[in-house]
Amino acid sequence: MEMTKEEMLDLGFKFHGHRCPGMPLGLRVAWAAMEKLGVSRAKDGELVALIETGDAHCAGCFGDGVQIATGCTVGKGNIKKTHYGKIAMTLISRNNNKAVRAYVVPEFFAKMEQSPFMQQRKSGVPASQVSCEISQPSIDMVMSMPDSAFIEVSDVFDYELDSPVVQFKRVKCSGCNEMVIEKYAHVLDDKIVCRSCLEEVHKL
């Protein structure tokens, strides 16, 4: 499915759930990485994105922008968090085992920290409750700045990844009677169990 950048921005806000500069930041950094790597949006698992944010990260919204731009999604299993606490990403092409790393430069944060949007967020206002009058200038800043003003992209480098084989075979767990993909099943007392049932046994 081909989309314009404007359509991606609109879809990104709908997918993300609120308007903030973090999601567009993910779009911009991902687009810059894709251009340097010479790739288009993934339809399958031909791209892998490693995003360097983490849990409770002030700009975790960045990851949703990366998903929209690159087509690397949780469902496809080709996006992962490294939990480095940064606003950065590595984009890898499985087609040629090449990659680039892109990150937001420190000078950008000095500008963003002073924005009314960030002041409200720091005071505890949820992003969804910040008015458009407050959030839109920060969004416009992210979307209008040239890449060179706030994004650094590395040279292309080698990055080899194993290509996982999609698993189809299912087995039934003897504990909960639910179906589980075979590679995730375990054997306990000669019976097939899923991981959650196995963990319940170990709690006893």
TrEMBL record:
Domain of life per record: Archaea
Domain Formylmethanofuran dehydrogenase subunit E intervals: 15-149
Molecular-function GO term, any one: GTP binding
InterPro entries xrefs: FmdEsu_dom, Pa2218-like_dom_sf, tRNA_methyltr_O, Tubulin/FtsZ-like_C
Gene3D superfamilies to which the protein is assigned, alphabetical: pa2218 like domain, Tubulin/FtsZ, C-terminal domain
Coiled-coil zones: none
Assigned keywords, A-Z: GTP-binding, Nucleotide-binding
Pfam families, A to Z: FmdE
PANTHER family linked: DEHYDROGENASE (PTHR39418:SF1), DEHYDROGENASE-RELATED (PTHR39418)
Full protein name: FmdE family protein
Organism: Methanolobus mangrovi
